Amino acid sequence: MSLSDKLGGKAKEAAGEAIGDDQLRAEGKADQLAAKVKDAATEVIDKVKNIVQK
């Protein structure tokens, strides 16, 4: 996921915090976590590709 996905999640979380919407805040946190997981998975895939190519 891109930086915009992370920022979108952060914005959702902040909006939920501002208006007292726990569901929106949770969605924002989940979006941020999903972005981090996708980034980590992409990094692992890239490392495996580099190992296989050697």
TrEMBL record:
* SUPFAM superfamilies linked to this entry: Hypothetical protein YjbJ
Q: Which residues form a coiled coil?
A: none
Give the InterPro entries listed for this entry: CsbD (IPR008462), YjbJ_sf (IPR036629)
Q: CsbD-like domain: which residues?
A: 5-49
Name of one Pfam family that matches: CsbD
| Disordered as annotated region, ranges | 1-22
| Family the entry assigns | Belongs to the UPF0337 (CsbD) family.
Protein name as it appears in the record = CsbD-like
Which organism was this protein described from? Amycolatopsis xylanica
